[in-house]
TrEMBL record, chains A, B:
Primary residence: cytoplasm
Keywords, comma-separated and alphabetical: Cytoplasm, Lipid biosynthesis, Lipid metabolism, Phospholipid biosynthesis, Phospholipid metabolism, Transferase
Name of the protein this chain belongs to: Phosphate acyltransferase
Keyword S-adenosyl-L-methionine found: no
Any one Gene Ontology BP term: fatty acid biosynthetic process
Highest taxon of the lineage: Bacteria
Single GO term (MF): phosphate:acyl-[acyl carrier protein] acyltransferase activity
PANTHER family from the UniProt entry: FATTY ACID/PHOSPHOLIPID SYNTHESIS PROTEIN PLSX, PHOSPHATE ACYLTRANSFERASE
Family per record: Belongs to the PlsX family.
Enzyme Commission no: 2.3.1.274
InterPro entries recorded: FA_synthesis, Phospholipid_synth_PlsX-like
Compartmental location: Cytoplasm
Subunit structure: Homodimer. Probably interacts with PlsY.
Gene: plsX
């Protein structure tokens, strides 16, 4: 297995990325890690060069770059070169913690779509109260979708949950504004009808965004606009609440502060359960090879989780299975 | 001022509703409260009948009823009769904690739309970290919307924030999947262009759902499908997190339990800040008179808040101002 890595992408790159790879290569001695970026900057954090290949690049795509323009102009950027390694057969999968839009565009235009799939989607494993998690897509690769796209998302998500997370017969639900079949926009109602007729998935009907974090479904399918809005609402609410609790305790009286110290362990355990760190990165699904986006602020541990996720995707050949599925679709 | 009240609607009706009115009539001695429902059941909780009018009804719309069918068939239900009182000029506004869909349908078909407004919307004042709150619409009165509808929502929300909440020159934002003007679906981009050209509102551009709870806007405009999904994602996340914290503390060791007891006050203060109880109910805006939906599980205090909100709507004649605004639109 060979994984190409954009060593320069992310808030704490290359340090966080390289330190993550130091850890990952102990866990996965059979993986070759190809690090794209500035050799000196990379080597400064690298423990040793066993199973490591460093490929020098001269350009950098940052968070301010306009995605499509950036991948066209900055051909020698660490991001574009790492993605191109997959296209050229030099690597089996690519990982970046850099500019999301640029990685999506590079995945789409350089790696390319699986035949019969019009619109690849961005998918993440989100945490649930019971710790099992669920896969949600599209989280914003598309600004709008048709029912046919969502039908593809259902299959992509179902294969992923079954293979990478080991969920048996994953329950696939459609995000709508009511659990009844009659609820939702025209687009959602048409999607409901399509999903009901796909034999290969275990479609359990509509789900409301209120219920997704409870573990009521293993895969939640949404159009890119709504999926993105729901994801950011979850993130925003969790962040505001945790900050409010922290502030309330910090600004509270003496007894509150003591109490805060005593519950600290529980709160940090909660933060771990609800954190996306351990679930790996967001996958661009529907393209010909795993293209994975780690959080911009990924810690070395989050990079290891993401390598674990990619390893599982390659080991199960979930992408190869999907290529076959869609090849025989028509 | 006369307010008609569906005394039988809600999880704890009529007890919670009537007890709320007992409190409200002390605060607002100039309001006549018209209670629609079963006289004996109402009287069992009523302190005295000063400023109270009880109107006997024989039917009940519950949460299982299909909204449009229910308002057509159950003409003598407390909900339909209370709404009809507004239509007939017997009351100035109506309040129900019952079936949301039925109240929306009754508001739409019985009270009727303001001239020039195609699609009334459901709006609530949601809590922010700083305690000021923001008004969001549409929260699900519509399953899909056109840009013209959202332009109306912007005006409805802006008048409401300015009059009922006393916000000077309310900042109106459009919910999208990026803050840049170029972000969003075709519908959202068209709406952005429309909102930029409305002179009567202070349009500040797009907002992501991640940022709405921080108080970055006073009014957030969304299509009914996305608004509903975002609202329920916020509610679901808050509920899961608070329950997780509670469980973590309850199932923790001795020190954690002690700590939990010490921070209890802060957590309950937080719950108050983030609670929608004090902000009143959800308003169906764009109809000819205030039609207000209180939470199904409203406490007597929540009913008082909702009466306060209705009082403010009537006092400022926000609906009359809107009728005038849209009358002169074309």
């Amino acid at each position: 297995m060979k994984i190409s890595i954009d060593a320069m992408g992310g808030d704490y790159a290359p340090e966080s990325i390289v330190k993550g790879i130091n850890l990952a290569k102990k866990e996965f001695p059979n993986i070759e890690f190809q690090l794209y970026g500035e050799p000196e900057a990379i080597k400064a954090h690298l423990e040793d060069e066993k199973n490591i290949k460093i490929i020098a690049t001269t350009e950098l795509i940052d968070f301010h770059d306009e995605p499509v323009k950036a991948i066209r102009k900055k051909k020698d950027s660490s991001l574009v070169r790492a993605v191109k390694a997959v296209k050229d057969g030099e690597a089996d999968a690519v990982l970046s913690a850099g500019n999301t839009g640029a990685l999506l565009a590079a995945g789409l235009f350089i790696v390319g779509r699986i035949k019969q799939i019009d619109r690849p989607a961005l998918m993440s494993t989100l945490p649930t109260a019971d710790g099992t998690g669920f896969d949600m897509l599209d989280l914003g690769a598309n600004a709008e979708n048709k029912p046919e796209h969502l039908a593809d998302f259902a299959i992509l998500g179902s294969y992923y949950a079954a293979n990478v997370r080991g969920v048996k017969n994953p329950r696939v639900a459609l995000l709508s504004n009511g659990s009844e079949e009659s609820k939702g926009s025209t687009m959602i109602k048409e999607t409901h009808a399509l999903l009901s007729n796909i034999e290969d998935i275990n479609f359990i009907g509509n789900i409301e965004s209120r219920d997704i974090l409870t573990g009521a479904a293993d895969v939640v399918v949404a159009d890119g606009f709504t999926g993105n809005a729901v994801l950011k609402a979850i993130e925003g609410t969790a962040s505001v609440l945790m900050r409010q609790i922290k502030n309330g305790i910090m600004n509270g009286g003496f007894t509150t502060k003591i109490g805060g110290a005593l519950v600290k362990k529980e709160l940090s355990k909660l933060k771990d359960t609800m954190s996306t760190d351990s679930a790996g990165g967001a996958a661009l699904v529907g393209v010909k090879a795993p293209v994975i986006k780690a959080h911009g602020n990924s810690s070395p541990e989050a990079i290891v989780s993401t390598i674990r996720q990619i390893h599982r995707m390659l080991e199960t050949d979930v992408t190869g299975q999907l290529v076959k599925h869609f090849e025989y679709k028509n």
